[in-house]
Amino acid sequence: MQGLPVQTVAAHSGEEALKHLLVEDFALILLDAQMPDMDGFETARHIKRRERTRHVPIIFLTAADRDSHLAMRGYAVGAVDYLTKPFDPWVLRAKVSVFVELWAKNEQLQAQGEAARVRDNAMRAAGVAVGEALTALNSTETTGGELLPAQLERALAALDRAQRHLGI
What we know:
rod-shaped, 168 residues, mainly alpha
């Protein structure tokens, strides 16, 4: 879309659109209700059935008359909007902009969530290693209160693992 920082992908049929959706992720789908072979409504049904694409918002764009029945069909198959031509390009641009921004924020949240999971796993692993070090250092009861070189070696190795897990 001109003026927006988005890359568009054109598909000339529902089948071609579905093929693109198998290998690429999209922030939004602009879908014509009237397409050859498989119409937009059937294409939208396929999109919404797939786990990978069911969350992608669909806006129908169509030259079909303003029949409210067609609009209801669009909403029934999962569309977030249904625009008939002629439509105001600024309105479409604003709608696209909102969905692209939502997609970008969602991607950012997913990346932050993954980073938090990685940090949590590292903290757990470091905690286990510190626990092993403490166990090695506290096992002096069996040696008459003295720390043996092997115990110290185990404790230092465990602390070294903890440092690696924490990246320090």
